[in-house]
């Protein structure tokens, strides 16, 4: 009798969680469409992503083709704005569910807090401009992290993680390289076999898939970043500063507790930050979202290599 009640209670809790995540996903999608209405109108007028869908887009966005493909097929059946709404709802729901699974072991209220935080902050992390590949890339990264942490069969885990590196490489080459390096240290040195994959994929994208593409933005951004022009005009800068100020004690305690065994993670974060400093914009905080799944992995501690 007790088992029956426990089973019913678990089903109710799962139902509440799924409904909660669905409502948050609807919020994410609607908020993003309203927040970036000018970007959506720009697409309708100029067809920026429409050219990418036809493999005639501009660099560097066409190198992130994989997360855009679902949006391409949705656009074949519905208006662009509606397609974007549905895209963000589906991938937002997937991201929230995967985040719940990645944060297993943490207190339930903290897990819900992370989900609400992602939903609320998502549009602000994209403040510099709407990027539909952001949520799709995050979902790929979360799946990759779950494979690395939870799949027990070592051979199957390595195979599927390699596949995930290929998929991420067609989404963002730099993030794929980060995940290949992280896997090498988190699991076994044999995962270093995956490190050349992002480089090979980038060459394929540039030389065969999009050979005529040209960058529409500046590549070298060091001086723009050093004068803090963009950082100071991004609202999330002040939110992050307040978060660090108020929660400095638990943040510093976490870093101290995980640094020695996971120094490679912090080196990857610093290295990526330097890369963005030179060829990106420091205020593009969406670029750092893929580190969230890896942060949750080191929070749980290393799993057995077997």
Produce the secondary structure layout.
Layout: H1 2-35, H2 37-46, H3 48-53, H4 65-75, H5 80-102, H6 108-125, H7 133-150, H8 154-169, H9 173-186, H10 196-209, H11 222-226, H12 229-232, H13 235-246, H14 248-259, H15 263-279, H16 291-300
Walk me through the structure:
- This protein is 73% helix and 0% strand.
- The protein has 16 helices and no strands.
- It has helices at residues 2-35, 37-46, 48-53, 65-75, 80-102, 108-125, 133-150, 154-169, 173-186, 196-209, 222-226, 229-232, 235-246, 248-259, 263-279, 291-300.
- The protein is globular.
- The model has no long low-confidence stretch (mean pLDDT 87).
Brief overview, please?
73% of the residues lie in helices and 0% in strands.
Attribute tags:
73% helix, 306 residues
Question: How many DSSP helices?
Answer: 16
Strand content: under 5%
Largest sheet: none
Q: Low-confidence spans: pLDDT under 50, at least 5 residues?
A: none
- Spatial extent as radius of gyration: 20 Å
What is the overall shape?
Answer: globular
Order of helices and strands: HHHHHHHHHHHHHHHH
Alpha-beta content class? mainly alpha
Mean pLDDT: 87
* Overall helicity: over 70%
Distance between the termini: 39 Å
Number of strands: 0
